[in-house]
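Check my protein:
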Amino acid sequence: MYRDMQRVIRNKGSYGIDGMKTDELREHVKKTWATVKTKLLEGKYNPSSDTATHVELYKAFPNIGGVVHTHSSWATSWAQAGRGIPCYGTTHADYMYGEIPCARCLEGKEFDEYEKNTGLLIVDMFKDKDYEAVPAVLCKNHGPFAWGKDAHEAVHNAVVLEEVAKMAARCEMINPQVKPAPQDLQDKHYFRKHGANAYYGQGNK
């Protein structure tokens, strides 16, 4: 909460719906945090309806610490179309290795445990894939899930996924015969940032 407050202040955020100004927020948080924390710990808020999905991902993907499920419009459009997102360029390759897959839709009795089986379906989709190299998936007729080492990275990957989905859709609009980027180019961009000898970006010297 404090971190988000600082971000709003730095961005010179506008008045909230409660009419509070950003420079009044710090004192408000100080006064009310104990009450907010108590309410959270007492369990007055319902857990996410997708908790069972998240549990299956945490169980199967040991290096993740955050899961994000959205219905962002471009990624969801690919999911509704039942298509994975091909890697058409280096923006995609910088963050995710290869096509972002689209899992099938659940069927029949699988809907009896909808959320759990959604998670199991995603896990099955990644049995031969690197969940860290491709930290996102689409679920057909549903929407995207993304994950990361913590909640912040999971949100970041969800944002990247949406931008990649948008660019891929536009790419196909401009050139319906477009092909995925050459594999050597994809490899270069992904591994220079994520490989054992990565050198991309500003590291600590």
User: Anything to note?
Assistant: Helices lie at 2-10, 22-41, 51-60, 73-81, 90-95, 114-125, 151-174, 183-194.
